[in-house]
Amino acid sequence: MTDPYRITTTTDTTPDPHEPAATSGSTERTDVALWVVLALGIAGNVATSATGQSLLGVPFGVAVIVSAVALVKRHLGRRK
């Protein structure tokens, strides 16, 4: 019977399913870009709604929806 609390060195290279996967630089840049688009879209939508120019707010709303959906999809894809 093996001791589960024993610290040993192993040469097993299989990734631990409980550790987060390493992300590349381009993945992090994409996430940052999506968050920036989301924040700017929200700010633009609030500004156009506050000034009564609802027609100009439509592109900002579309940008918010697209970036939010992309962020959720990327998050759920990483959970697997």
Structural features, described:
Helix 1 runs antiparallel to helix 2. Helices cover 65% and strands 0% of the residues. It has 80 residues and is mainly α. It has a domain of 55 residues. It is rod-shaped and about 70 Å long.
Q: Overall pLDDT, averaged? A: 85
Tell me the structural class. Answer: mainly alpha
Described by the principal axes of the CA atoms, the overall outline is rod-shaped
Q: What's the number of extended β-strand segments?
A: 0
User: How would you sum up the major sheet?
Assistant: none
Runs with pLDDT <50, length 5+? none
- SSE arrangement, N to C: HH
Specify Rg, calculated over alpha carbons: 21 Å
Helix content: 55-70%
Estimate the strand proportion: under 5%
Number of helices: 2
User: How far do the termini sit from each other?
Assistant: 32 Å
Describe the structure concisely for a colleague.
With 80 residues, the chain is mainly α.
